[in-house]
Every structure is written in C-alpha cells, then in structure tokens.
Amino acid sequence: MRILRVNLRSERFEDYDVAEDDCRKYLGGRGLAAKILYLENKTKVEPLDPENRLIFMTGPYTGTFGSFTGFYNVTTKAPLTGAILSAHSGGHWGPMFRKTGYDGIIIKGKTAKPSYLLITDDGPELRDASDLWGKDVFETIDLLKQRHEKARSAVIGPSGENLAKYAAIMNDHHRAAGRGGVGAVMGSKNLKAVVVHGTKDVPQADPEKLRETFKTATQTVKEKSAAFMKYGTSMVVGITGKAGTIPTRNLQTGYFPDYEKIGGDALVNNHKTGDVACARCPLHCGNETKADKDYTAKTEGPEYETLAMFGSNLGNSNLESIIMANDLCNKYGMDTISCADTIACAFELFEKGIITEEDTGGLKLEWGDHKTIIKLVEMTGRGEGFGKLIGEGSRRLTKKYGGEATKYAMNVKGMEFPGYDPRGIQGMALAFATSTRGACHLRATMYVPELFQGVLDRFTVKGKAQTLKDLQELFTVLDSMILCKFGARNAFANSWDSMVMLTNAATGYGYTVDELKQVGERAWTVERMFNLREGLGRKDDTLPDRFFTLPIHDGPSKGAVVNRQDFDIEISEYYRLWGWNDNGAPSQETLDRLDIRM
C-alpha cells in the first residue's frame, strides 16, 4: 500500500510504502488508520490542533471488480468526543482515489490560506481555494467539477469552515463521512477539498474471482433483498415504529404514534424520484426524493437515521420538513444525527424551563414545530446565533447551562444516539456503550438479531457480550477491507467464509477465517488503546441515566428499561472476552497474542 504524507504548513509531500507485515495485520481502511493515528498523534493533542492527523484511507477491496467497493475511511481524533474516530462514505470518491496509485493520505499542519489538495496520475499539489471558502457543499463540488472535469471531490461546507463539532466531509453532493466532526478537523487545517483523478489500474490479486462474486451478489440481492432495494433504510421506520423502539422527543420514550407518516411507504410513494447507487453496487439502496408542498428541496435520502432523528425524536411528523432538513445538512456539510439530536436536546431543555426564548434568540421550541426545526438547521449550518451553540453538540450545549441540564444530553462519549432506543433493543445498550467512537449503530448491529430477526430477547442485556464482540470484530474487518455493511448483509449474509474469499481475492494473502477475525480483534484493540491513552475508560462505557431509570412509558415496549446491575455484569464479561482488565485495558498477554507492538 502506498501512502501520501502531506504537510500543509510546509506544503511538502512524501510517498511511503506500508510494510507488508502491517498490511497483513491491519489490512487497510479503519484498521491501518487506527495504528497510524496511535503512533503519530501526540498524547492528548487537541482535535483542532494542526498536529492532529487527518487520515484518508481506502482498503484493498476499494475500487476492485467486486461488488460494493465504493467506500473510503477518514480517521482522526474527534472534535465531538475527544476519542478516536473513523467515519466512512460511499459513492465514487474512494475508487477514483485508488486509481491515482495511492491507498491513503496522512495530513498534518495547516495551510496559510484556504487551499485544496489535488491528486492526479502526475502526483499531488496544493491549490488556492480562497474563492471556494464560504461556499456550500453543492456549489463547491460543482465548481471543482468545472475545473477538473473527470475528477471526484471530497469537500467541506460552511459547517466545517466554522468548526462545528459534527461537521462532515461530503462527496458526490450527498454522501457523507458524517459522524464525529471529521469536517471540522479538515476546516481547522484550512483545507476545503481533496480532489482526485486517476487512470491507473487498481491492484487486485484475482480480478476474475472478484468479477464472479459481483455477478453472484447481483443475483442474490435481486432474489432476497427486493424490499431493501425499493425502500433503502427508510423501511426501518416501520420496524422500529411498530416495535415501539424509535427515539421519540429526545429519547424520553420509544413510541411515536405517527411513525407511518415518516416511514418508507410515505417516502417512496409520495416523494421518491429515482434510485442512487455507489460504485459497483447492485442494491441501489439510495433514494432520490423531493419536497414540493410545504418545502422545496431535491435530495438523496433521507436515510432511516435522519427520518427518525428529525422526525419522531423531535415529535415531528411532517415528512417534507425532514427531506428539507436532510438537504440542508448535506448542503452545509453536517451530520444529520448529531444535528437533529442536539436540536432535540434543546427542545427538552426548553420544555423543562432550563432555557427560554431569551437563550434561543426569540425562538419558541415546541415538539413537532417543523418550521422552527428548519430555522435551527439553517442557523446551525451558518454558525449563527443559537445555531452556533447547537453546532457544539448536546454535551457542550448542556454543559453551558450546567446542573440539571446535563441529564438531557443523549450521547455516549459525546456522540449523539442514532435511531434505536436501547431500552427496547437492549443489545444496542451494550453496543452504544462500548463503541470506540461513541453511540454508533454501525459498530455492532445488535438490532438485527434482536429486532429484525427476533432470535434474541430484545428486553435484556444478559448473555449478549459474546454476540457483541463477534459483531464488532466482523464490522471492523468490513471497515478495513472496506466493504459496505449493507452489501455484506444482503449479498453475503455477513459470512466469514465470504469475507475471507473476498479479501483473499483482493490481496492474495491467503487468510484463514481465524486470521481474518484476528485482524478485526487487533484493530479494535488499538482503537481501545488510543482511547485509554486519551483518558477514556470504563467510566465512559455507559449510557445516560435515563435508560436505567426511566422506562418507556407507552407503546409496544412499554415498561422497558435497562437493568443497571445486569448491564455492569455484562460489561465485565465483555472485557473478559476481549482479554482486558476491569478498566478495559488490554493485558500484556492479549497484546502479545495479537502481536501489537506500538
């Protein structure tokens, strides 16, 4: 693997080839980037310090002839949480980047003026972006397309320039490396975009085998995933809504009676205009949609998380406003989940009388008031007034008001919750608490066996540590290959045998199942080590008190609450399975077994 080092301060570039041993042990993507960040970041460096590394990384599967090969990874220390962060995005940027002959970029420093990084077959260069600074995501991508016709661009919008703590990096207009604030790190470096265009062949050990797997995956999803192809993730609203596990009014409860108004049928039947797919994707799970009554917008999405968090979690059943909010977040370059959740937190603070119209700049915050929601999204995207504080995330918002206010910040390690109430899907309580980047639904999809498949009791945490660890290992490997998780589940049934086959066809390394599992275990452990070094530990592997003390008070999951004692016992068992001590620190025996030498 060839990595490009970029020093923005000195405007110097350096190529280096990753040692074969590291390629085999960490694979690429999230795994390799975690090791690099651990080694190169100074302990407790501030996320917006120029010395905090911003690492773009593909995996050996990215851009190959296989299916679902469109993803790339961005790793850094997160402005939102202070923890290690990896964020992923699909689309077409990743495969184009690999055609330049590089597999990753390590960026440090800060340019003296707004700039963008251009990488072509001829190599890298920095160019002036002063005329792009201040422009939104869509304008920036379109202007760069005019300058570099065949290139693909990963950009930040005004949110990233204003250093909002959950600013995203955007590509293909609506695709986002969205969570945790990678866009703020990019903005802190005065870097507006990374523009790539290459024509080189992507290395792959067995291209014919990968072509064969693409044909098989295409047939499989046609036969088994018709609903997902039609609805995409919007279909999940019907599942969580019916089960009473959809976040509602800042996660005060899990039941939203009007969930069908914001669900897949309403979106697809009334607003869908077309399908969107990432590179070499037979699923086409993205929806092009429009709003043309209460609001005017054309966008890609909204995905389930956006429907839930801008919908039920704000008491909002106006679907057009959710489409509009989605489009605005993409335009400004913001994570829809953290943006919506922080607004929901503000709504509850207003409901409880902790903040007033004097704090909000005259806005009255009432559940379901979609016009005020949209106004706050616009203010947040521009960094104006009360929106500037919303852009800090729920932890910093409530810290400003102190005392009782902090109880209403629904996050783990500072990262806001996605669309699953952990009282009604209790494996997700463990998944949220132990995720290395904070509350995340994509580090271990416990909702699949618990809710989608119904093979685990969703109203208890007991006995779930092993399943959690197994899923975390698998998804760390997927994020290191990098393979789309929807593709892995719908086309390959999350099969380790399939992952081994795909990885070996891309790399030629000849992994066994046990060896590939160890890649996931090793990378997850390095992420844990990074967080421990930064001051995070067992005290941070928990949930807000609400989930232990306030049962869901209505709907199909009425009475559900996480038992704190059972939760603590399962966390201890989880640590034991990983080979960690009571604070979650890996033992020397574990480090030796995984051959981690830092």
Using brief descriptors, characterize the structure shown:
6-stranded mixed sheet, Aldehyde Ferredoxin Oxidoreductase Protein, subunit A, domain 2, alpha+beta, Aldehyde Ferredoxin Oxidoreductase,  A, domain 1, 598 residues, Aldehyde Ferredoxin Oxidoreductase Protein, subunit A, domain 3, 3 domains
Fold and architecture overview:
The protein is α+β, with helices and mostly antiparallel strands. It folds into 3 domains: 196 residues, Aldehyde Ferredoxin Oxidoreductase,  A, domain 1 (4-Layer Sandwich); 192 residues, Aldehyde Ferredoxin Oxidoreductase Protein, subunit A, domain 2, CATH 1.10.569.10; 148 residues, Aldehyde Ferredoxin Oxidoreductase Protein, subunit A, domain 3 (Orthogonal Bundle), CATH 1.10.599. It is 42% helix and 14% strand. The strands form 4 sheets. A 6-stranded mixed beta sheet has the order 2-1-6-3-4-5. It has a 6-stranded mixed beta sheet with strand order 8-7-12-9-10-11. Helix 7 packs across helix 21.
Layout of helices and strands:
Elements (H helix, E strand, L loop, with lengths): L1 E6 L4 E6 L2 H7 L2 H12 L13 E4 L14 E6 L6 E6 L3 H6 L5 E5 L6 E6 L2 E6 L8 H11 L4 E4 L2 H4 L7 E3 L3 E3 L4 H7 L2 E7 L9 H18 L1 H6 L4 H8 L20 H8 E5 L9 E6 L5 E4 L3 H7 L8 H14 L3 H16 L5 H4 L9 H13 L3 H5 L3 H8 L9 E2 L2 E2 L10 H8 L12 H6 L12 H17 L3 H8 L3 H12 L5 H21 L12 H4 L14 H15 L9 H6 L5
Parallel strand pairs: 1-6, 7-12
Antiparallel strand pairs: 1-2, 3-4, 3-6, 4-5, 7-8, 9-10, 9-12, 10-11, 13-14, 14-15, 16-17
Helix pairs in contact: 1-2, 2-20, 2-23, 7-21, 11-13, 12-15, 20-23, 20-25
